[in-house]
Predict the structure.
Amino acid sequence: MRHIRVLLAAAGALTVTACGREQLSPEAERGRQVYVSQCTACHAFDPSQPGPVGPEIKGSPRELLEAKVLRGTYPPGYKPKRPTAVMPPQPQVAGDIPALAAYLE
């Protein structure tokens, strides 16, 4: 009987953990941490939603991230989602662009 209770408790704990958030690769988890700490002041906590200043950025290609984050520009031929250009370059994020791209894909 004790084994059944232990198994049920473990299953319940896994269910609660799994419901809270999808499992991310280590690189995507690092990207999530960067996103939460560096991007959510302007973009929504959920990157698939528009933020108070910045648009939704879920699915943004790495080329766009590099252009906006490193240079504050858009890649050639890219049509912005919003007509504003208020995002300054974020050089402190340069080393984490691959992780950020993994999280946002």
Remarks:
- The longest helix spans residues 2-20.
- Residues 26 and 92 are 20 Å apart (CA to CA).
- Residues 2-18 have pLDDT under 50 and may be disordered.
